Amino acid sequence: MPLLQVRMELQLEQTLLQGWLQHQLASVDLPLKLLRFPLGRLQGGKLRSFELSENRCELEVKFASGPAMQLGVLALGYIPESQIWRLRVEHLHFSGFRGAPVLNQVPGKVLEIAAAQAKQRLPGLLELCGNMELELYLKPLLQKGLQEASLRQRLGVLGLEASPTVRVEKLELGPGWLGLSLSASG
Length: 186
Prior knowledge:
Elements: E1 5-13, H1 14-26, E2 29-34, E3 37-43, E4 45-53, E5 56-63, E6 68-79, E7 84-95, H2 100-105, H3 107-121, E8 126-130, E9 133-137, H4 138-146, H5 149-158, E10 165-174, E11 177-185
Antiparallel strand pairs: 1-11, 2-3, 4-5, 5-6, 6-7, 7-9, 8-9, 10-11
């Protein structure tokens, strides 16, 4: 029997998420390849625009190395039992480097490569389902987050053990916000 059970409802504002994304993008350093052919490099990303609306996310990123990317994603639904967020990429456009026209012709292949790279970095995170649809598995992401020492220390202050069970019960996008309902026990 768990010592403590916690349930949290969070509404993360677009500005907060934008700051977090900007921080993550600043340290990006990835080669761009299609099959074995090098097309450039993504380094030092900067968020040019970011907008959340009802079940949608639109963003534009410019990289210090030259390339730029526009991405539009539709949230198809969240499945709490399996901790899967189903997404469809509606718009993916590259510019600012010689390989951009090639990548723009094969967005499905770009997603396939991105999913493979994501799985290398964090196994089980992302699956490509065809028709530009993705399944984002939250369990590996939550496990990775719980491994961070500062978070584990804070959980201890709340009375939760070092590795509690955490589940996302609800996940939704609204105009200017991301809504989460979390439960934790331990």
